[in-house]
What we know:
Layout: E1 7-12, E2 18-24, E3 28-34, H1 35-45, E4 48-49, H2 50-57, H3 61-77, E5 82-85, E6 88-89, E7 116-117, E8 120-123
Antiparallel strand pairs: 1-2, 2-3, 4-8, 5-8, 6-7
Bound molecules: zinc ion.
Amino acid sequence: xxxxxxFVEYLFGTDGFRVTRAQHGGRSLFPVQTTRQQIKELLSQSxxxxxxxxxxxxxxxxxxxxxxxxxxxSVAAQKKRLLVTPSRCSECGYVFSDRTRxxxxxxxxxxxxxxxVEPKYRIE
Length: 124
Ligand SMILES: [Zn+2]
């Protein structure tokens, strides 16, 4: 009887990207999903910020931002879009709507507050 994967473990691929591998019955190891595929799936299901993604996949936020750049291009080929809910200043409400980079801005240009709400991402 097939019981499905016993567990899933994360390994580092030789190209530096993590590959998820499922081990069936303690025998065969084979790649199932790349980190990018996992991020795409996550963002197709719910809106997440970089911290959510980094915690879900156990990768650094820096790595998340690197993947997001590639994902934005690859989803376009599938007629989907990576949508960004822009960062917002929690003090004065300033919205960083013209920001093209994925990372969080360090401070508000209007009131100089550093409490900036992180941008959120989703795929539609
Ligand atoms: Zn502000």
